[in-house]
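Title: Prediction job returns without error message
Component: structure pipeline
Severity: low
Priority: P3
Assignee: unassigned

Description:
Job completed but the reporter wants confirmation the result is attached to the right record. Sequence as submitted:
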Amino acid sequence: RLSCIRNNIWLACCGVLSAGLAVLSSFGLMLFCGVPFVVTVANAPFLILGVGVDDMFIMIASWEQSSRKKDKSHVKSLLAETYAEAALSVTITTLTDVLAFFIGTWTAFPSVRSFCLYTGTAFVFCYIYTMTFFGAVIALNHKREQGNRHWLTCMRVNEGKAEKSCLYNACCLGKCSRHSSRLETKEPEGEHPMNIFFRNYYGPFFTNKWMKLLVVLLYGAYLGGSIYGCTQIREGIDLRNLASDDSYVIPYYDADDKYFSAYGPRIMVVVTASVDYWNETVRLGIENCTQNLE
């Protein structure tokens, strides 16, 4: 927002901080429990950040909707309605993510198992911090707005009747109006342009009967292509994909497929017993055994 009182910069920063706390808590708990830390786990913070920021936007959007319906002075009722609207969405998304990653712990690959354990636990902590820490931050930010305080300095902004300069109003209120004696928090809050766009343009466009028919046809084509793609999946892994494009391993596997793919895997015979190799009869027996295997 342009208003320096209604600005939500600190809310956004605390939402990112909430995701960071979830990563630290998850990593600390898993390391304390002795779960191996592998290189793939280093990608987990990016997943947690994406989900944490998504939950943050859901909470803020629900708060804004609630603040338009109710008296802004009752923080408890505002926060209660915010949780009633946002908690269900946040809970469902968290449950599906946690379930997906904890199912991944059944794999036979130890590195994937560690990655799923770290990430799934981080999602649990992200949910806890969003429902507790971030909700408290929203209430504190609301208290700052009600006090008509600047988002950066937290100083009370121009409550007197004395007119201030245009530069002062631009820095402290976000606008260049000389009539700034009225509290910013008392002014009616305008609706966000994205809400207007989706309600007045996007919604009516997609509820048109021809557009609905086109969407159904496109989804049918997408579904058919997805089913066909699932039938083409083959189990296995190409070892080339595990190395970088400029690695010496790539030419090796190309040559191996080109010249030796017709011979199949190499078979090795191991003699585990104690053998008298000095005995010519024993050596002939081993040679005959090898020829029979060939």
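Comment from assignee: result matches the submitted record. Residues 110-146 form the longest helix (37 residues).
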